[in-house]
Prior knowledge:
Two copies of one chain form a homodimer. By secondary structure, chain A is of the alpha/beta class. Chain A has two domains: about 1-50 and about 360-405, Urease, subunit C, domain 1; about 50-350, TIM Barrel. Chain A is built from 14 helices and 16 strands. The first copy, chain A, has helices spanning about 75-85, 90-105, 120-135, 155-170, 190-205, 215-225, 230-240, 255-260, 275-280, 285-290, 310-330, 335-350, 375, 380-390, and strands at about 1-5, 10, 15-20, 25-30, 45-50, 50-60, 110-115, 135-140, 175-180, 210, 245-250, 270, 295-300, 365-370, 395-400, 405. In chain A, the strands form five sheets. A four-stranded antiparallel sheet of chain A has the order 5-14-15-16, covered by helices on one side. In chain A, strands 6-7-8-9 form a four-stranded parallel sheet. In chain A, strands 10-11-12-13 form a four-stranded parallel sheet. In chain A, helix 8 (about 255-260) links the parallel strand 11 (about 245-250) and strand 12. In chain A, helix 3 (about 120-135) runs parallel beside helix 4 and helix 11 (about 310-330) packs across helix 12 (about 335-350). The longest helix of chain A has 18 residues, at about 310-330. The interface of A and B includes residues 65, 309, 323, 326 and 378 of A.
Amino acid sequence: xxxxxxxxxxxxxxxxxxxxxxxxxxxxxxxxxxxxxxxxxxxxxxxxxxxxxxxxxxxxxxxxxxxxxxxxxxxxxxxxxxxxxxxxxxxxxxxxxxxxxxxxxxxxxxxxxxxxxxxxxxxxxxxxxxxxxxxxxxxxxxxxxxxxxxxxxxxxxxxxxxxxxxxxxxxxxxxxxxxxxxxxxxxxxxxxxxxxxxxxxxxxxxxxxxxxxxxxxxxxxxxxxxxxxxxxxxxxxxxxxxxxxxxxxxxxxxxxxxxxxxxxxxxxxxxxxxxxxxxxxxxxxxxxxxxxxxxxxxxxxxxxxxxxxxxxxxxxxxxxxxxxxxxxxxxxxxxxxxxxxxxxxxxxxxxxxxxxxxxxxxxxxxxxxxxxxxxxxxxxxxxxxxxxxxxxxxxxxxxxxxxxxxxxx
Amino acid sequence: xxxxxxxxxxxxxxxxxxxxxxxxxxxxxxxxxxxxxxxxxxxxxxxxxxxxxxxxxxxxxxxxxxxxxxxxxxxxxxxxxxxxxxxxxxxxxxxxxxxxxxxxxxxxxxxxxxxxxxxxxxxxxxxxxxxxxxxxxxxxxxxxxxxxxxxxxxxxxxxxxxxxxxxxxxxxxxxxxxxxxxxxxxxxxxxxxxxxxxxxxxxxxxxxxxxxxxxxxxxxxxxxxxxxxxxxxxxxxxxxxxxxxxxxxxxxxxxxxxxxxxxxxxxxxxxxxxxxxxxxxxxxxxxxxxxxxxxxxxxxxxxxxxxxxxxxxxxxxxxxxxxxxxxxxxxxxxxxxxxxxxxxxxxxxxxxxxxxxxxxxxxxxxxxxxxxxxxxxxxxxxxxxxxxxxxxxxxxxxxxxxxxxxxxx
Lengths: 409, 409
């Protein structure tokens, strides 16, 4: 089961997914004779679905999930986050925490993630290595920040760029784990640093990730910091950081008409982070409206503004928030299950290449779900998928494949 | 750790909980000499907290958790719920499903629950037995419904009352698992059936549970069905079903001033069901306002309008919804962690007697939580509790005690 378009599921019951060298060749009801000698793995009565792709989360905040959730954003950063991020200059500590982080991603079925590490180059290198060891996909970002945060986690512009370039050179040709240009957000950058980052993105043809319009105070701050700008997105755009190369922008709760237009260019992916937007009381992003405008919208757990690393929870919370938005605001419609699933699988997967769909020509990234006999005997395949998304956990996922390779957890 | 009042946690670090015959004798920092010969169970570096008490859920809907969540309420009942509830006349099926249901409650730390079974007397009997076998607390309700639902799950008034009385006589003297009078909700009752239920509640001194004001259409329907009533609560109150004996009313999203006043009598417990209220797009109950008026508010998972049986999820979702309510409506404040925890432990526990607090004179119902070393070395006890509530699951709960007895899962 998978979604090819947001509006509906593709369902093949009791069929075969045929993969050659990690790429899906065809889906069929009967096994063609030509594969008589091939290996057949029997997953009868289980669900085979794409993996999840998390478009926004902070590995350096993983330990902090679910703490300080009743603090205001700035106190939360000050009392918890920055202190924690600082410790990732210690590579032993980074190995311990990132190892657990990457294990948990795989365990919960997140086969690809676009991740912020911290500003530490050495620490970020350990995160690349943790992903490589596990064999799951990632775009790994060393966080570039040069002002408006405590001294102990910002860097001089040149040092920040040098660190980035070192990691880009080291990892740019990796098959699964790749670099991504990562200004934390415009307030911790300067025009100088963003201009340099835009150049690096273009020179190496690298994707970009950052934050945008998470809450109204932040949007106001942008106007003060960049007086010449016509919008938050305009700041990034000015420095070739908004869709010049594939770009993920997290949150996007308050995009103006101008920004929505800029986001339609096909290379911008908005990462909707439902739990985080509630926990930090940011507001509810109008993602259904964005999708109807042809803007690409994926999902992010936003660890640790969001507390759950499980992407099935993000799928569910996106639906729940869309229902609440309908309840309180006119001109909104709730997300359907297939739309939310599409966001977490097909749209997110697209950022990584041909993954996120169980379709000819796509790499075989897949999860095998085994649910309880009492469900199997009573419910349809789609009911069972919905149930997994709403109430399942890692124990329901019995196999994980990335590019046809089995991942061990 | 526990809450004695909603506004704060009581924390004893590296202390002892001393229980004699299942009742807490004292909490202390050093073990008094008099207990030198007593059994000491070492839970060093773990968290000891009260169990959770779920004030509203439907055992007969357990299989349905997380299916049909994008349906409208009436279609959902028609296409899924009623068909499922019907099957509990088959006692073998009831044993299978209820066995799993009660196992899961214990596994996730719900040590007491106020539960709707179905209208089947035989089926409901199996639910009593499942709870007894597990050794956790429950008020078990045979669902009394005599109209406005498909024929195959309603009963004649007399048959419904006879079934209730049979179960009451059989189980009224049980120590942990007790009967509760359970009209499904006023629309499926008649004046005749409610009058009889009110009399039974009074005669046997039984508590009562039902639904109230889940959504505006339902409130309108009540006005049509009971033209003489001044409010939804007034209908129950007329028949001694609103706080004459201890009473749980689920949802209460839209209580009028008159109903709020009726709910202040000290015997009415509102069961706030956050996930359900979102899934079915009912609205967000103003629970903080209710609590400030001195109304008792506990939490319900509302399986299967709610999808998660885990009460830590209900605690978190209550906080999240209170934040959203603040965002959209004036005159609201978010729930603090201690307030939401109090709802799910101390307030819910009160309905079962002296449980829900780790305090002298209370029965020892408790959970022992073991979290990861990386958390223990970094965070305070309260941070670790918050983290368990936000991201923990049953694997973090290493022991469960009910009245001092260890529960096996």
